[in-house]
Amino acid sequence: MKRYWFLAAFGFVVLAFAAVWLGALNQDEGWYLYAARLVSEGKTPYRDFFYTQAPVMPIVYAAFTSVWNSFGLLGARILTIVIGALGLAFFCALAARLVAPGRRALAALAVFLLLGSNLYHLYYVAIPKTYALASLFVAIGFFLLTFARTPTLRGGVFAFVSGLSLAFACGTRISLGVILVVVGLGLLLSIRTWGKAFLWFGLGGAFGLAVVYGFFLCDPTARAGLFAAQAYHAARGGFDPVFTVGSVSRLVRWYLPVFVLLGLGFAHRSEAGGEIDAVLVARLAFASVVAVFLVQMLAPFPYEDYQVPVMGLLAVFAVVLFFGRPASVPSRGLLLTLGLAWAASFGSPLLEKWTTNGQDRFWTHKKEQCELAQLRDVARTIEEEDPNGDMLLTQDLYLAIETGRKVPAGLEMGPFSMLSDEEWRKLLSSAPCKMAALSGYSFAINPPRCDEVPIDRQIEYWSLLKKDYDLVMREDAFGQNATALLILKRKADRTDR
């Protein structure tokens, strides 16, 4: 068993390093961190700036703003992978609670292999989006639920805090609120064996939702902003069955070892064991995964990474089914799990995506450096052109984070910021910042529908910008999806060198 733990830890360290340092840039990283920075400055989401997600992440991350102020996006990714690792630890502990005492270490190790040796999972709990924090709250909520059957005040406290944690998960990603419904209903239907656990759980969930959303609902301006954020998502509209099917297909590919183990577990079903009624918790975990999946599928474009916060629950359920069998052979089962996890990560398309920019016929375009290193180099160039500057005109907000600069009001959501045509023209004509950094995302997306802004209008915006700015540098194949980045400097501030 020790050698498997060593191999699992080795795989986790290597893949976590790859996810943090080599992982592709994602536009969302910038505006999530920028929102947290604004909160640290005393501003309120929805009221003082537009923000489309639930409020818990920027509030929590606001306490750690000094991390990326000092170390840039790398620091934020390290912080996030630590949070993701804590969530992974709780998923392992949950699996241990759901099997017989003699198989607890085995179950925990199997979950660690399935998630900790999954490059895709580690990448999405390493980049500063909502997934790592939401995963942590989900894992804690279900872990505490395993102690809630005790018919004493102690059991009630565990049920209460379980509901509280899952409410915070909903406060991180609203779609996870369906877990509260699934678990609450499951406990209610099991009242004969679980007693008043459903009541305590409901109180904890209600209290948590009040803590998260109460202030915003009571403040008229914030409430209007919160509702506008939900309308923003709904306004994208449309439905592409090809995209949806492709999303599900990719989800299976990214988590193939989990699905293989799940299939084997169903083929040789066993009951969960242990000192608690683990069968109910395991079933609620699986039902929660299904419920969240169905809710996410209702989105116009359901990206597969939306499922990341609950995939730990699916891994736990698969392990309980497969390793809970009395007839299962631990060494063979662990070897199978290890082989599946490592083969899937070694063969992951992410490795190619992170090291190349596609192919021209049979010539592969290799990246000269990883995207995070490229971001840091561009940030140094901006600093050289504008030492100790405090503003940057950009929609690539990871550049604002890396340079420690602010962006003009209205651009807090990066490429998803909603400015009218009149507001764009006014902003660009005012030449508000000494430096500008504009990629292929600039002026291109028309939120909330997220269709493309007409080309002639984009050209007009660039023409307005050209009147007051000169080109300093062009960086080809920069950032998410490798678009060209132009570094510009206001003409009045340029000096010939």
* Share of β-strand residues: 5-15%
Mean pLDDT: 93
What is the general shape? globular
Major β-sheet annotation: 4 strands, mixed
Low-confidence runs (pLDDT<50, min 5 residues)? none
Q: How much helix, percentage-wise, in residues?
A: 55-70%
Lateral arrangement of strands in the main beta sheet = 3-4-8-7
Q: Give the end-to-end Cα distance, rounded to a whole number of Å.
A: 64 Å
Class derived from helix and strand content: alpha+beta
Radius of gyration based on Cα positions: 24 Å
Number of H- or I-type helical stretches: 22
Task: Give the number of DSSP strands.
Answer: 8
Write the H/E string, N to C: HHHHHHHHHHHHHHHHHHEEHEHHEEEHEE
Overall structural domain count? 2
Relevant terms:
single chain, 8 strands, 2 domains, alpha+beta, 63% helix, two-stranded antiparallel ribbon, 497 residues
Kindly describe this structure.
This protein is of the alpha+beta class and 497 residues long. The chain has 2 domains: 2-349, no CATH class; 371-493, no CATH class. Helices cover 63% and strands 7% of the residues. The chain has 22 helices and 8 strands. It has helices spanning 2-22, 27-40, 56-62, 65-97, 104-116, 119-124, 131-145, 153-172, 177-189, 191-194, 197-218, 220-234, 241-254, 256-267, 278-297, 308-323, 330-346, 349-355, 371-385, 397-403, 421-429, 455-466, and strands spanning 356-360, 363-366, 393-394, 435-438, 445-446, 451-452, 469-478, 483-490. It is globular, with a radius of gyration of 24 Å. It starts with a helix and ends in a 7-residue tail after the last strand. The mean pLDDT is 93.
